[in-house]
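ARCHIVE CARD
Drawer: 12
Card no.: 0347
Subject: one protein chain, sequence and derived structure
Cross-reference: see card 0346
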Amino acid sequence: MQDHQESPPGLEYDTSAPVLVTGATGYVAGWLTRRLLEEGFSVHAAVRNPGIANQMTHIERMRRELPGSIQFFQADLLERGSYTRAMKDCSVVFHTASPFEFAVRDPQRELIDPAVLGTRSVLDSVNVTGSVRRVVLTSSVVATYGDNADIAKLPGKVLNEEAWNTTSTPKHQPYPYSKTQAERIAWEIAEAQDRWRLVTVNPGLVLGPCVTDYIPDAYSFSLIKKFADGTLKAGVPPYETGMVDVRDVAEAHLRAGFLPGAQGRHIIFSDVKRFIDVSALLHAMFKDHRPFPHRVLPKWLLWLVGPRADKAFTRPVVSKNMRHPWRADNSKSRQSLGMQYRAIEQAITDMFSQMIELGAVQVPQALTGSHKPGTS
């Protein structure tokens, strides 16, 4: 399997000007940086600490193997103006940097400020950089809803790009709140000028392998690890959501940055899966050597004991998300970006295989076969 989709007919990337990727060592940003280098771009990679050697090894390898070039810049989401130097001469800015975590002690400091103030900081730099013509913001599908129960109140009971999350707060669902507020700020800033265009990518739960030589500190990996390390041995929550391959998310960013007609928001997902479906797939592919969960926990039990087991599982979260269906429309991404999504089963299989290979989970080699991420 290719690491990326075929480009839409007629799309030619103008590589004459550099592009900026914020948070370039991140999970999604890593695949986006790879795609940009594959296409021959000069990438300005903004990272908080470019001196951390183990975070740069994979990028150095891509620099050697791929036709594009890359230059690193130090920048901080909470330091206004710190992206201006990295943005110099860039035509497109991909703002991917934002924390993704549900269990936090201080939502304002750990989630909301980096997301909102960081977005404002990046776009302030865009406004003083005359070369920028387009900004692609990594938002999230949770900027369109707060809880699964909200979806039932929408026309047709289906999410689309017209929907906005109006129910999350700093205390209830702070991560969705942070993404919603960051995207709203971005649209306010974009609509106050007419030089550059804002396009947002709103992915569901992002799964799939990473480009790094280590397992990143990303929510997706910690979630999948829980299926194998015994955390969920008693069972999984009765929860479902839209899921998407990280390589498709990167491809959507690239197309959002350069397709002439790309505009507005784009819900990005491949399929809707329940957590028990993920567990069943892992069990089928990697046998039962690990304690993969085999049952769905009753909602009443989660409501009763969930807050004691995991602070993110508050009773309102359980009540408004468990056993509520998740439905969304990704037709805009298919039509305007030409997206053709990978099967999410491939993303999960590649991801778990890589976690075994990098030692994040322990499964005897005899049970894993010869599967490698990005193949088959």
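Annotation on reverse: The two ends are 6 Å apart (CA to CA). The first strand starts at residue 19 and ends at 22.
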